[in-house]
Structures are given as C-alpha cells and as structure tokens.
Amino acid sequence: MPTEPRNFTRAGGFTLVELLTVIAIIAILMGLLFPAIGSVKDQARKAEARTACLGIVTAVRAYHTEYGKYPNPLAGALPATPVDIIVGDVATGLASVGNENLFNTLRAKATGTNAANALNPRKIVFFEGKDAAVPTAPKSGFGPNGAYFDPWGSQYCVAIDMDYDNQLTTLPYTDLKGATKGPQIGVAAYSLGKDNKLGIGGNFKDGTTSSDDVASW
Length: 217
Hints:
Blueprint: H1 16-67, E1 85-87, H2 100-106, E2 141-142, E3 148-149, E4 157-160, E5 187-191, E6 205-206, E7 209-210, E8 214-215
Antiparallel strand pairs: 1-4, 2-3, 4-5, 5-8, 6-7
C-alpha cells in the first residue's frame, strides 16, 4: 500500500538560539533603559532637595518675622561679635555645627538649644517634614536627633546672617561673592548633592557646566 506523506510540525516552544536571541535583546534594552531611569531618579532627588532648600529659607525668614531675630543654632550664647554661620554636615568641613538645633527650634521641639522652648516660646511650627525611613542611615527626612538630611544622606547646610548686615560672607562658593562681600540675603540653604562635594572647583557653576549641588538661590 502506498503510504501518505507525513506532515511534521514543530512542537510549541523556542529553540535555544531563539531564546538566546531574546535574552540578548532584553539585555540590550535594559542597558539602554537603566541610565535613563537613573537620570530620572537623580532629577527627582534634585527637585526634592530644591523644594526643601526653599522651604528652609522660608521657615527661617518666618521665624525672623515672628521674633525679630534669627534662631541661634549654636550650643550656647552667640559670640560677643556675631558672625555669619553655617550649620549642616560638619564632615565636609563647611559647617561649624550640625543643623539639628536649628530644625528643633523651627519645628517647636523642646530639646537642644530650644530646651524648655527657650528659642521658640510661642511653640510655632515654622517647618514641617517627615522622619527618615531608616533612622540609622537617614535620607530625605529627619534623623533621630532632629537633624535634617537630603536625599543623598547628608545634612542640609544653612547659612544665616547672624551679624545682621544683610549679606552672607560665609557661603563657600567662590562664584557667588567678591573678595569680601557675599550675596545680599539673610539666609540660604543648600545641599552638596550626590557627590557630597562642594561644586566644581569651589564654584556652584563653572562656565556652562553646573555642579550637582542644589541651592535656594
């Protein structure tokens, strides 16, 4: 008897070559996607830090309007001849003390220099914010002692015109001030950004290249 030709059809599934090809394509796409995701995250963190810096400045100015003076973030009395000061991340060498006393005062927390509400007797909350999700490595919020941290885990730096001459001579950016005078503002806040380093060669902006620092000005 003549036999009928058989139809051989491939069973469902992929060959090894096809699987490897798909995996290679996915790897290429992921390689293209990850940098874009990282860039979006960096921009989101910068936007968060910028908003926080502006909020800090607004809070300190509101305190000044309410009490007729700036909050003293130093542990103890101001020097006989007051000078502009910076509070924030002392590890960078840019701040004299941490920012916890400043924020405890602005948040009406009766601790540190604001013990017994000494610096904020009316208990006004000038600044609000969330606690950091991980207290042992705080980012984007308040640490256990009240210090306020940026999205990269460093304390926000805040410069305050404690000698009341309406200029900040302590700001470390060389492209923001002349030989002896600083910007004519009473308070400024900034974050050193992802690299936790001061600008580009000490500048906030070097030519057309901006540093990753984030500031209120």
